[in-house]
UniProtKB/TrEMBL annotation, chain A:
Domain of life: Bacteria
A GO molecular-function annotation: ATP binding
Protein name: ABC transporter ATP-binding protein
Keywords assigned by UniProt, alphabetized: ATP-binding, Nucleotide-binding, Transport
Protein species of origin: Marinobacter iranensis
Domain ABC transporter: 4-236
Keyword Lyase set for record: no
Pfam families: ABC_tran, TOBE_2
């Protein structure tokens, strides 16, 4: 297990800048989730650490060692690809054995069998070990692909949306399994996902990427409760943060152009009137779609609310986020 | 939509009919190999005949005419093939050159195919995976070597071979056939390797393998289909090639195609021996194709990478 550090890493593909002077430290034993839309540089970051791509400039360190010039095999990293990339000419068992039999590891067969059976049990694919990789369903392929990383004991695990094509039940199970493995082995994880629940529940740290730059790095709670910009604030939270012009409510700082309201930042029952347009009952919570001075807001209310479309609800912001014209957060005044 | 019973029926008849038409000359050659010389040129042609191995015995032996007394002496304890020769009023003088020529064909055909596959796979992999300067121009140049019939450059090649001492050598013919086939194999194999997602190799690199090991363990098994079908094309060309073989080989490295017509002999036309020579000549390509058929029919593996 090891700390991973990128310093000043830049990478372009033709005229596209994938990473722009990225500096980030993944602490030893941490679980870092990278967030950002497609093209933000999440996958490229993983490929830099894995060695599949070399940076145009900057350096990559694993465990304090400069690995920038090393091949992927020399770096001792395990990676789960977004495409499952199982070897189609091999069986599931052979796929799982493949990294252990590499010239780098040359594991004795007894250990290979023990490890493969253990991982197959965790991933619930024990009954498929002798199938060819092409005979599996999408979810099974993805589990084998995760398994191929888990059989090893690498310096760092790199995972690129590993749970994206699994059904909800399996995703919940594997979320806990991966987290257990990380906690038990003290493994370092660098993990890409679009799933907010994965980010919030698994991550010890979240890195928010925007156009190849790291815009915020911190615990999930910090990112959620103290975002540095509209962009960072929009990455987490279900339903998404509401953004409306700052002058719609009194009390905004002078340079604020937008106000950001998460559902819990909208106090219901006092303040200015808004119109209930729709009530979505999700079971454990109920979402209210409100119309407020020509703007739509989505918030959460009591699961058993009596509200119905057409009702009037007074609302007012409670410790909201204010953003300036560039989308940067205006720090809250300490007096209030 | 599943084709109707009648469509299938018509299709079957067409396919069987076409197969028959293409296979008749082949069957005729095989049959002629087992005919006597008089049956072979009988008119109207004989479909039913007394089969004999005379053609095959003549193919593999050199014979000389013998007097009655000599024949009477040697007929005692003669083997079955000697008896066949004696019946023609001749004795066996020794083995014919066919065996040698056939082996030359095997060495040159399979040698050039193997070389072509090694070079072709390596070049195709490089063109498919690496940033090669002037890649498109190089690929076009490789293709352009097939834009004229190879025999058009026969004279320069003949002169080059003479000054390099490659005339009538196995090495010379292997190099020549490899050069002619290489453009085909590079292009075909590049197509097959392009189809193999690069993620497999990347996964193998991460799993602790070097690029060459990844190529060997992951790319090659998946390219097997393509390599097998390309190898068949290359072998068929090298095996059947006639013009260069006539021009550049005469003795030690002569292949079977230029030799077979000479079997016909000086006294009387020995068509059954020629047909037997042609039939034996067909066997290796048939066996090779049947052995690789599994790969041809298996098709390209797909579905293990999410697109």
């Amino acid at each position: 297990m090891a700390e991973v550090t990128l310093t000043g890493v830049s990478k372009s593909f033709g005229s596209d800048t994938a990473l722009d002077n990225l500096t980030m430290t993944v602490p030893d034993g941490s679980f870092v989730v990278l967030l950002g839309p497609t093209g933000a540089g999440k996958t490229t970051t993983l490929r830099m650490v894995s060695g599949l791509d070399r940076p145009d400039s900057g350096r990559v360190f694993i465990g304090g060692l400069d690995v920038t010039a090393l091949t992927p095999a020399q770096r001792n990293v395990a990676m789960v690809f977004q495409q499952y990339s199982l070897y189609p000419h091999l069986t599931v068992r052979e796929n799982l054995e493949f990294p252990l039999k590499s010239p780098q590891l040359k594991t004795p067969q007894v250990q290979i069998d023990r490890k493969v059976n253990e991982v197959a049990g965790i991933l619930q694919i024990g009954h498929k070990l002798n199938n060819r990789a092409t005979e599996l369903s999408g979810g099974e392929m993805q589990r084998v692909s995760i398994g191929r990383a888990l059989v090893r004991n690498p310096a760092v695990f790199l995972m690129d949306e590993p749970l994206s094509s699994l059904d909800a039940k399996l995703r919940a199970d594997l979320r806990i399994e991966i987290k257990n493995i990380q906690a038990r082995a003290g493994a370092t994880f660098l993990y890409v996902t679009h799933d907010q629940i994965e980010a919030m529940t698994m991550a010890t740290h979240v890195g928010v990427l925007d156009h190849g730059r790291l815009v915020q790095f911190g615990t999930p709670r910090e990112i959620y409760e103290n975002p540095v910009s509209i962009y960072a604030a929009s990455r987490l939270g279900q339903p998404r943060i509401n953004l409306i012009p700052a002058n719609l409510f009194p009390g905004a700082p002078e340079n604020a152009t937008e106000i950001g309201l998460r559902p819990e930042q909208i106090k219901q029952g006092e303040g200015e009137s808004s119109l209930v347009q729709r009530v979505e009952r999700l079971g454990d919570q109920t979402r209210l779609h409100l119309a407020f001075k020509d703007h739509k807001l989505i918030t959460v209310t009591d699961a058993h609310t009596e509200l119905k479309p057409g009702d009037i609800v007074p609302i007012r912001p409670q410790n909201p986020f204010y953003f300036d014209a560039n989308g940067a957060r205006i720090p809250p005044r300490t007096t209030t | 939509m599943e084709p109707s019973g009648r469509t299938k029926w018509v299709a079957s008849i067409l396919v069987v009919g076409y197969a028959l038409i293409t296979i008749i000359p082949l069957l005729w050659i095989i049959a002629t190999g087992f005919k006597s010389p008089s049956d072979a040129i009988a008119y109207p042609p004989k479909v039913v005949f007394d089969p004999t191995l005379e053609g095959y015995v003549n193919l593999f032996t050199e014979r000389t005419r013998a007097t009655e007394e000599t024949l009477a002496q040697v007929s005692e304890g003669a083997t079955w093939y000697e008896a066949i020769v004696h019946d023609q009023g001749m004795v066996i003088a020794g083995p014919s050159r066919y065996g040698e020529r056939f082996m030359n064909s095997v060495i040159i055909g399979f040698g050039s195919t193997a070389l072509c596959m090694i070079l072709g796979t390596a070049a195709a992999y490089a063109f498919s995976r690496f940033r090669v300067p002037l890649k498109d121009d190089l690929l076009f140049f490789i293709l352009s070597t097939r834009m004229m019939p190879p025999i058009a450059v026969a004279i320069p090649i003949f002169l080059m071979f003479r000054s390099l001492g490659l005339n009538d050598t196995h090495l010379g013919m292997i190099l020549l056939y490899t050069a002619v086939n290489l453009s085909l194999s590079v292009w075909l194999l590049k197509g097959f390797i392009d189809e193999i997602p690069i993620e497999y190799e990347e996964a193998a690199l991460i799993d602790g393998y070097t690029r060459f090991q990844a190529f060997y363990k992951v790319v090659l098994p998946q390219a097997a289909t393509g390599i097998a079908s390309t190898a068949i094309f290359c072998l068929i060309f090298a095996w059947n090639e006639y013009a260069f073989a006539v021009l550049l080989t005469s003795g030690t490295a002569q292949t079977a195609p230029p030799f077979i017509p000479t079997i016909i002999g000086v006294s009387g036309k020995d068509w059954p021996a020629v047909a037997a020579g042609a039939t034996v000549f067909l066997v290796p390509v048939m066996v090779f194709t049947i052995l690789l058929r599994k790969h041809l029919l298996r098709g390209i593996t797909f579905g293990a990478v999410r697109k």
